[in-house]
C-alpha cells in the first residue's frame, strides 16, 4: 500500500457514484432502487477514504506517517494536534533516537509564538529536567517555513492516564507524589522568574505509566512568559484552569500557576473538572458560589471587573430600568449550604481511596482538601509554593461593594437592594 494518503484519496475520487457491475450490496441497497444503490456505493467510498486517512493519520499540515521533517527526522506517528500545529513521534536518522517533535504552523502569529517559546526553553536549560520535573528540550530545526521543536519522548499525558484509571480519580497514595513533583516543577520554574500560564492535565506528561510511583513532567511552555514581561489584561491559559484574577484583568503573577495546580489536583482526586464552563462568566460564577467573591482589592484593580460585577446601587437600578427583561443578578449561597449536582461531595469523590477505615479516609480527604484550598485561596497573595500543614478556619466574607452579574431574574426595589447589600456575613 502506498504511503501517500493524498494520492490514494485522489485516486478514490475517480470511483463512480454508481455501483460497479458485480458489486455485492446488502442492507438498504438490496431494495433494488437506483437511489439505494448510489447511496451504498457512496457510503463505501467514504468508508474507504476514512479508513485510509485514519491509517495514515493525515493532518491539516499534510504531515503523515513515513514523511520526513527537516533533514533527518522521519515521522512514525502523530501524537496529537492543536491550534499551534501538531506533535509527532519521530526517528532521528542520524542519532537513531526516537523523539517528540512539535511542528508549529507557518502562520505569522504561531511563528512568533514559537520564537518566544524557544526563548523560554533556553532559560529552562539552566534547570535539570529530571530533578526539576520538566520536559527535556533538545533544540529546534526548520521544515520549510515551519519551526520544529525537539523534545524527549514521554509516555502519555496525565489526562490520558486519568481516563485509563476510573471515574473516581486517583487514590491518595498516587496523588501525593504527583502533587509533590508538580509543586517541585513550579518551584524551579518560578525560581527563574517564569510563569507557565497553562498548567493542566494535558500539559503534564507521565514518564512511564507502568512505573510506580508514577513520575510526571510539565510540558508545553508555549504560553509561558517572564514575570517582567507579563502585562495586565493578558488572558492566557485554558478557561477551566484560569485563576479568577486573570479573568478580571488583574496584573499577572506566578500565583496563577498555583491556582491551576489546585484545580489539577482536585480533578485528579474527583475524576472530573472542578469548574467547567463555556465562558469566563460561567467559571467565575462557579468560583464565587464555592469560595465567595474575590476581595474588593482584587476587584478594584481588575481591568475587566465591570464586565462581571456592578459596584453601586445606582448602577443596579439603572440597569434594571434600561433592561428589565434582561437584567439579572444573584449572589448564590456557597455550595456547602446549597448542594448542587455540579460539584461532587468530598466523601463521594474520595471513594476510591484504598481500603483503609472510614476515619482514615476522612482524615486523608481533609488533609488533601486543606492542600487544595491553600493552593486555590481566593486572594492571590496568600497562595504559596511551600505546602505547609496548617489549620484552615471557616472563611468568612461579607458582601461589601460589589455584586456579581448573574443568571437569575430579580425584581428588587431600592430598599430591598439596600438590605441585601448590608446583609450579614455568610460562611463557606
TrEMBL record:
InterPro entries for the chain: Kinase-like_dom_sf, Prot_kinase_dom, Protein_kinase_ATP_BS, Ser/Thr_kinase_AS, Ser_Thr_dual-spec_kinase
Annotated signal peptide: none
Pfam families on file: Pkinase
Gene3D superfamilies: Phosphorylase Kinase, domain 1, Transferase(Phosphotransferase) domain 1
Keyword tRNA-binding: no
Domain Protein kinase: 73-365
Keywords: ATP-binding, Kinase, Nucleotide-binding, Serine/threonine-protein kinase, Transferase
Protein residues bound to ATP: 102
UniProt-recorded Gene Ontology molecular function terms: ATP binding; protein serine/threonine kinase activity; protein tyrosine kinase activity
Any one GO cellular component localisation term in the record: nucleus
Family: Belongs to the protein kinase superfamily.
Protein name in the entry: Protein kinase domain-containing protein
Organism: Amphiprion percula
